[in-house]
Amino acid sequence: MEQSNHVADSLDALRQVYQNCQRCALAASRSRVVFGHGRPGAPLFLLAERIGDMDEQTGRPFSGPAGDLLMRILAAPQVEIPARDVYLSNLVLCRAENNRSPRVAEMRACRERLAQEMQLVDPQVLVILGRLPWQHVLGGKGSLERQRGWYRTPEGRPAYVTFNPASALHGEAHAIRRKKLLIYEDWQAIAAAYRELSGD
Ligand code: SF4
């Protein structure tokens, strides 16, 4: 499944390069490639783990309940980040059978695309949503809850690690409430940096 890496000069060109991608085994389980969503120059690049069923149906990442919750968080008091300032993408662009997490080889196969996508968007902050992107991009280990917060990517870009909103959708009511509170705290910190960087 080896394919040459083409350096694209725009997000649309990159999308074209990957629209029929066969670089990893996920090509066999997807019904379509779900490319990142947003505009070049968006100050925040949100990186999650994988494509869900609803994303595959709509062709947009974060189309389901986790995306709805994310939009409510972005609009919440003391966050108030416009959706146009957020770019959404995933470690891999293709859905796996049974919605399992991507394997290391699959994330590696999609890494060059992610690096190019990040360069083309050129955000001020990378927001890492969840354990797998934290591990894959920053080598994170241990408790994500205890180690949420600011990092730098190997390229020197500021990065904030927080939970994926999807993790606050299931479980006991008190655990959901607590997780939502932690996510809200994180997004207040991200919003403060966003406003500082954008000169507000
Ligand atoms: S997950 Fe990425 S590398 Fe794998 S087939 Fe899809 S686009 Fe290609």
TrEMBL record:
PANTHER family: TYPE-4 URACIL-DNA GLYCOSYLASE, TYPE-5 URACIL-DNA GLYCOSYLASE. GO terms for biological process: DNA repair. Keywords: 4Fe-4S, DNA damage, DNA repair, Hydrolase, Iron, Iron-sulfur, Metal-binding. Gene3D superfamilies: Uracil-DNA glycosylase-like domain (3.40.470.10). CDD domains: UDG-F4_TTUDGA_SPO1dp_like. Residues 35-182 form the Uracil-DNA glycosylase-like domain. InterPro entries: UDG_Type-4/5, Uracil-DNA_glycosylase-like, Uracil-DNA_glycosylase-like_sf. This is Uracil-DNA glycosylase-like domain-containing protein. GO terms for molecular function: 4 iron, 4 sulfur cluster binding; deaminated base DNA N-glycosylase activity; metal ion binding. SMART domains: UDG, UreE_C.
